[in-house]
Amino acid sequence: MKKIIIPKRFYEIIDKILITSIEYYFDSYIVGGFIRDLIIGRDTNDLDILICSKKRNILDAINFTNIFVKKYRIKKFVSFYNFGTSKIYINEHEVEFIAPRKEKYNNVNSRNPIVSSASLKEDTFRRDFTINSLFLRLQDMKIFDLTRYGLKDINNKIIRLISCTNLEKKFTQDPLRILRAIRQSVQLGFYIEQRTYNAMKIAVKRIKIVPINHIRDELNKILIENTTIKAIKIMGNIKLLSQIFPEFEDFDNSTKILVYRNINGSFKYLPKTKNKNINKKNIILKIAILQYFLKKINNNYKLITVLKRFKYSRKTINKITLVESNFNRISSYMANIKLQTSINKNNKFHLIVQILKKFLF
After folding, report:
1. Residue 259, SS3?
2. Rounded-to-integer distance, Cα 120 and Cα 335, Å
3. What are the domain boundaries of the chain?
4. What are the tens digits of pLDDT across the range 253-287?
5. 263: helix, strand or coil
6. Sign, CA torsion 79/85/107/182
7. Domain spanning 1-156 has what CATH number?
8. What's the predicted TM-score (pTM) here?
9. How far is CA 344 from each of CA 55, 195, 201, 340, 347, rounded to the nearest angstrom?
């Protein structure tokens, strides 16, 4: 395995965490997707730090945060006592502190567990996928792969549920993991391991217990990606699409294929960027394009109703409506001057999207 190199922009915050950990006798580890992204050479922004004392208290992370923010005079932070976690905002970074924990799900209608203190191994096996289960100890930069599959699955580009006796239970307890598996698959170009994929299909109806705004946030992350259409197809194949968007089930298979093709023809002209403002506008543009093609097939289809259900803001909905109406106007104009006879369909999509990008951006 190649040597892990921490990006320079994180040097200062990680040094401060390490100094404070040593000074106050805490062990500190970088955990989760940050390590995975460093290994595959992917730019990363999320920094999760696991904090534990010798006595292993569920409030270790919160206690550490209180010391840390006082020591470095950080004003922007929040703690969640029910889960033993804290977040601080420093140098344009959001850093989450967590304590090793185990989870117990008592309410079948909620994905929020009751948490208690745990060992590192117990914390590892309550997590979702092997690729997100690595620990990097700051004191000596040693990697711990307690599932024994984390590094292997990263190298082989596999998304696999962390082993347990009942795989689908991981998804039924927290069904948002289904969307996360799809997002990370298209985001990273990883393959969803077959048993994990089968467990997703079994648990798919449980998505209804997830608050709609959490589903919306995951969908927005998918919409930012260049591979949005791949995610939509996976969602369709496991019947997740019909659970989230029951309106889409009114279309037959041939119609869905046509929608996929047309949407993909437009989406591919919206490259992903690190600029958050442009990514937000890409989300608006992609939803507007989706509405445009669905209305061409069924004029009564109202994506606006769906957007309201997903609790998009009125401002966002108005922008989507405005862009969609302009998409329709530009397409009609191109048809009237018979541009489509001199350019192929893909170029037509390209021209429309480029015009709309200037209008929106």
Report:
1. helix
2. 62
3. 1-156, 245-360
4. 777 777 777 777 667 666 566 666 667 777 888 88
5. helix
6. positive
7. 3.30.460.10
8. 0.87
9. 68, 42, 38, 7, 5
